[in-house]
Amino acid sequence: xxKARRLIIAGNWKSNKTNAEAIALVTEIKRDLHAVTEVDVVxxxxxxxxxxxxxxxxxxxxxLGAQNLSETGYGAFTGEIAPGMLRELSVRYVIxxxxxxxxxxxxxxALVAKKAANAHANSLIPIVCVGETLAEREAGITEQVVxxxxxxxxxxxxxxxxxxxVLAYEPVWAIGxxxxxxxxxxxxxxxxxxxxxxxxxxxxxARRVRIQYGGSVKGSNARxxxxxxxxxxxLVGGASLEAxxxxxxxxxxx
Length: 254
Description:
Elements: E1 8-12, H1 19-32, E2 40-44, H2 50-57, E3 62-66, H3 83-87, E4 91-96, H4 99-104, H5 109-121, E5 125-130, H6 134-138, H7 142-153, H8 159-163, E6 166-169, H9 183-201, H10 203-208, E7 210-213, H11 219-226, E8 233-236, H12 243-252
Parallel strand pairs: 1-2, 1-8, 2-3, 3-4, 4-5, 5-6, 6-7
Helix pairs in contact: 1-2, 1-12, 5-7, 7-9, 11-12
């Protein structure tokens, strides 16, 4: 990893944890990682648990993230979450374009780009996800798919906004399956993503963008994955639901 880029480990809790369970989990993570200052550690609970976890995180070295954001602001948008609602709760990061939302909510690259622009306009840092399916990898079109998602999802952002966007490469076939891309497979795609960023906004911007890997990350494989030159962190799913496993990932990244 480029020493100029600070590692970022984020836990995506997805649709899990009640308020009480979220409080218990954050309390444990906060206790076990209180001395860790070398890495940005982010927890991303469900919307219903953001208020309670925010109270615990605000005076700690942890950061709070949300799992989605509306492309709009306040108004008659039933079921949507406006950026101001997140900022009030000290949310700093927001996950956008996760493969599950692309698949189940049919989110397009264009919609992700609108959400990313809305995040930046409201001082939130988007974590923009890209990644191919197993069929796409087996068809040999991983780079084509990832580049299309990348260009589409970052469309309209300024170089300064892209520079402060976090990207997450999540091969869909490795999410929640127990399968993990090898460290070399992951590094190859991360290096390709950085190459695309160079073509979009130049070497200086591309060098500063942090790119996470996501897909069955756990303590046992974190050190090798995060030791790759273009992998700047992890977006952790299942392993972030238990304090012990999430803490192990963070500590193995240092």
